[in-house]
Write a structure and sequence with these properties.
225 residues; mainly alpha
């Protein structure tokens, strides 16, 4: 006897490639937003330290936020933090060198604390001259990279970020957007590239940790399917 009952149709699941792409795209946006707000928060705190010591000076009419920072500084730092934090894990995948050194959140938090300490030292600690301060901050920044990163891609990106950020700062000061007290490296302070280098390493570590968490979540979903 032939079966006349039609089998119930089961909706097809999206293939693993489509689901992984969708999940990756959403997590990329979430990571970018998280990195943006981390960058905004660090910019407000660190810029407050610089202003309190009169290291950076902004015109009175642009000091509008409660942290006495120009309104455009936090969004710019947040955007840069998002780009850097997304770029580091992307570069690791492109080079085929996954970063596995000290991949836990406690290490990331210590890296952030050291970066804040380096910035605090640039604003609070008095040195005999700017050369001594710059050499000390350079040693601390390289020590931060060696302690929490130790990857060739991390060092290369840190140097590139320091160069580009210093160049942008030179242009902003040249055009009168803000100024540094006692500039000794053209229009800025000679230790500024060290701060940018340490900041790039720090945001790169945060971005790598967020990317690792994303990979872990995707792997767990794939295992359940």
């Amino acid at each position: 006897m032939a079966e006349n009952d039609a089998k119930p149709t089961v909706p097809k699941k999206s293939g693993p490639y489509i689901s992984s792409v969708t999940s990756h795209g959403m997590n990329l946006v979430i990571r970018g937003i998280v990195l943006f707000f981390i960058g905004v928060f660090l910019a407000l705190v660190l810029n407050l330290l610089q202003i309190q010591r009169n290291v950076t000076l902004f015109p009175p009419d642009v000091i509008t936020s409660i942290f006495s920072s120009a309104w455009w500084v936090p969004p710019c730092c947040g955007t840069a933090s998002a780009v850097i934090g997304l770029l580091y894990p992307c570069m690791d995948r492109h080079l085929g060198e996954p970063h596995k050194f000290k991949r836990e959140w406690s290490s990331v938090m210590r890296c952030v604390a050291v970066f804040v300490g380096i910035n605090h030292a640039s604003a609070k600690v008095d040195f005999a001259n700017n050369i001594q301060l710059s050499l000390t901050l350079a040693a601390l920044s390289i020590g931060l990279w060696w302690t929490f990163d130790r990857s060739r891609s991390g060092f290369g990106l840190g140097v590139g970020i320091a160069f580009l950020a210093t160049l942008v700062s030179q242009l902003l000061v040249y055009n009168g957007v803000y100024q540094y007290t006692s500039p000794d490296f053209l229009y800025v302070r000679s230790w500024l590239p060290c701060i940018f280098f340490a900041g790039g390493i720090t945001m790169g570590n945060i971005g790598r940790q967020l990317a690792m968490y994303e990979c872990k979540v995707i792997a767990e979903k794939s295992h359940e399917d």
